[in-house]
Queue: 2 jobs
Job 1
Amino acid sequence: MKKIILFGGTFDPIHIGHLILAKYAKEFINAEKVIFIPSYIPPHKLNYTPTDWKHRYNMVKLAIKNCKDFQLSDFEIKRKSVSYTYITVDWFKKRYRNYKLYFLIGLDSLVTLPTWEKWQEIVKKIKFLVGKRMIQQNLLSNLPKKVFKKIIFFDSPIIEISSSEIRERIKNSFSIKYLVPEKVEKYILEHKLYK
């Protein structure tokens, strides 16, 4: 059965860590493609206002433009509502009935899984791909045992870059060269984002 990886996130902005994680995940399970799904309103980041969806969507589009393995979806953006994973998973499962779907997340997101809306429903419907180098067991101690049956860990370089760090660097007039794809850096500068 063909495999597809769903990769949701705020992508504010998308950076090389996201792209490397997606590439390694695709190769690890030999998936046909990775679908990037920028959120409209991320449910776990209600304490900050994300950059307008148009900019985040455009940056992902630029970042993955030359990679045939990567695809962009506007599903969550078109809904114009809080982007709950359980809704996204249901929609993609209906759309790709003849595919095995996986949801790609980082270790930092995995530990918050029990706080997700209808997380138990999500766990029943899809397997999670989690990139790691080494796992600190204490980080996973709060996860319910049944979740581990639905997690596939794979080795991936841990790129210590965060979107919030990139936003902070721009705010303080530091360079973001090499942290984001060149086209994304150019887009950020042209549109004076994160100033």
Job 2
Amino acid sequence: MKYLGRDLQCLYLVMKKFHEEVHNTYKVDVINALSISRLAFNIFVNRYYKNNIALITNKELWSCIKESYYGAVAEVYIPLCENAVYVDKNSLYPYASLNAMPGKNAVYTDYMGNHVSIDGLFGFYYCDIECSKNYIGLLPFRTESGSVRMINGR
């Protein structure tokens, strides 16, 4: 019981110190967050959010955009290249989040035709895509059951 008492006392002191540090540094109360993710969100909103990010409040629009986010798609390919350069990209989601995102000045376009140059496009688009038989399968899609698969041209 003595060990347990000291163990709980040490845990309390650590939690108290954490609470004080977060409050003094970010002016956020950890009591208002049930998880570390929520605490990070509260800190972001309180300290860094300046009404400069488009908040999507339309449920139908959010559902449509959400379909395009897959995350954690990991496929293994055996490269068949000679004189190739190997590049490993890590943390592309955080990197991408530092760049501009569509939202505040969004415009809905119903149809743009069959031969549109994608060089100047920026935003979220729903597209029908045709792949050649030589396509190696790096384009993800969601099946009816909700799982994520890669398109394979073969």
